Amino acid sequence: MNFMEKLTRIWAKNNSLVCVGLDPDLTKLPKCVRDIKNPIFEFNKAIIDNTCDHVCCYKPQISFYEGQCAEEDLAMTMAYLRSRCPEVPVILDAKRGDIGNTTKMYAVEAFERYGADAVTVNPYMGMDAIKPFLDYADKGVVVLCRTSNAGAKEIQELKLENGMELYKHVASLIAGPWNLHGNNMLVAGATYPEELGEIRKIVGKTPLLVPGIGAQGGDLAGVLKYGLTEEKTGLVINSSRGIIYASSEEDFAQKAGAETIKLKEAINALR
Amino acid sequence: MNFMEKLTRIWAKNNSLVCVGLDPDLTKLPKCVRDIKNPIFEFNKAIIDNTCDHVCCYKPQISFYEGQCAEEDLAMTMAYLRSRCPEVPVILDAKRGDIGNTTKMYAVEAFERYGADAVTVNPYMGMDAIKPFLDYADKGVVVLCRTSNAGAKEIQELKLENGMELYKHVASLIAGPWNLHGNNMLVAGATYPEELGEIRKIVGKTPLLVPGIGAQGGDLAGVLKYGLTEEKTGLVINSSRGIIYASSEEDFAQKAGAETIKLKEAINALR
């Protein structure tokens, strides 16, 4: 089953547009997991067990594993996800992109070493820099378009000669000529809901990965108003810190589960 | 000593603008190292021993380590470089960039886990996405501007409202408001020497990291004609495959040394 089929099925099965970001920072983990072996994996495992019936995706941010020498915990987490909830796709958030022979190695990392269903990539170097990812026809490729950070506008909102902002041009590439196998998605931040609407007009039904809900203060009602497709799907709405650090006590995983359900229901009430 | 001082000293001491890219692909390593323990590290070590008096930089491309589960070999290589040739700066080629708390983890990876002197980053998300790197005031930050791949023009040559190409605007940011501690560099590919001249006009003495010589077929004479500063420096000219795979036999490291000297002299003849 390819990435887009997998995503479409889980949207329906779990009736959820929620993605949980697995971005574990050792200094923020509850005391009860901090001192055991592979604390990052054990933390993730507990979060997964308590959320997997209420999500459409998981999104581990690879920097948290690389910055904490925790490649093993990431591999264990990916393997656990495959056995515990094989129907839930996993987007490895890595924002890669480089010349061909280098990107090939990044594609091996994402899809073969870690077995991700999709990976986030950066469009600045053009299509050939993400082609080795696209060549995995069944895998998803999630390209940055309009990111959720304040500084994003410095580059992404630059107006081109024809009056169009750069991010809109990038959106048309991602959903158009770059969408070789129909498994592309775009990153469009929740902190700019109107722009999300502009993107939706350009990309049709192409799904959007929407970070920025929760800790980053994005506007959920705006996201749904402007971002949903006619089918009331088309969105993968990520929350990381708002869910995984819902409690810093022993009940952290139960609280993460409760926050996930709360977000799922808040979204569904607005659909 | 900060990154720029370190680079300026080694340009003079080794009389070289050559950077050797340490991008070891296990399938291409000579038979004599392929079956020993930590083959990637042993390969790098031999290359380093035979080239370190003739370079101004090393540039390990992190994808080759991540794609081959070789984080240990990368750490060993970085430690070896620090003891064998501490005066030669090391640029970790990672092309990172993400929202603040994520980039912080990438900065820890590059500067603390691996002890790099500089790191390559992607400008698409704006300055706040690279700020955690810039906050290490002594470290170098090498920002993508005009990359060497054919598809680069798809985004980087887009004309802005004022008629200026995007890469020129990015150049002015990298050398201007983003250059918080004077340790910034830009990536400008050898495959587009005239554009390198345009960039030089915009960035003054800010050094350029120039990939694309060797396997990618860049034009060395053009690079020097358009890229040098008035001081006849300002360039870090990278070759990876052309040097590290100069021979696939037991003499691979000697041949890599000979190729490095050849490239250094070819460059110096044109300075």
Notes on the protein architecture:
- The structure is a homodimer of 271-residue chains.
- With 271 residues, chain A is an alpha/beta fold.
- The first copy, chain A, has a single domain (3-270), classed as Aldolase class I (TIM Barrel), CATH 3.20.20.
- Chain A has 13 helices and 8 strands.
- The longest helix of chain A is centred in the C-terminal third of the chain and has 19 residues, at 252-270.
- The mean pLDDT of chain A is 96.
- The interface between A and B is large, with 58 and 57 residues.
Task: Give a brief rundown of this model.
By secondary structure, chain A is of the alpha/beta class. Chain A has helices spanning 3-13, 31-34, 39-51, 62-66, 71-84, 100-113, 131-134, 153-156, 166-175, 193-203, 220-227, 241-244, 252-270; strands spanning 18-22, 57-60, 91-96, 118-121, 140-146, 184-188, 208-210, 235-239.
Topology:
Two copies of one chain form a homodimer.
Chain A: H1 3-13, E1 18-22, H2 31-34, H3 39-51, E2 57-60, H4 62-66, H5 71-84, E3 91-96, H6 100-113, E4 118-121, H7 131-134, E5 140-146, H8 153-156, H9 166-175, E6 184-188, H10 193-203, E7 208-210, H11 220-227, E8 235-239, H12 241-244, H13 252-270
Helix pairs in contact in A: 3-5, 3-13, 9-10, 10-11
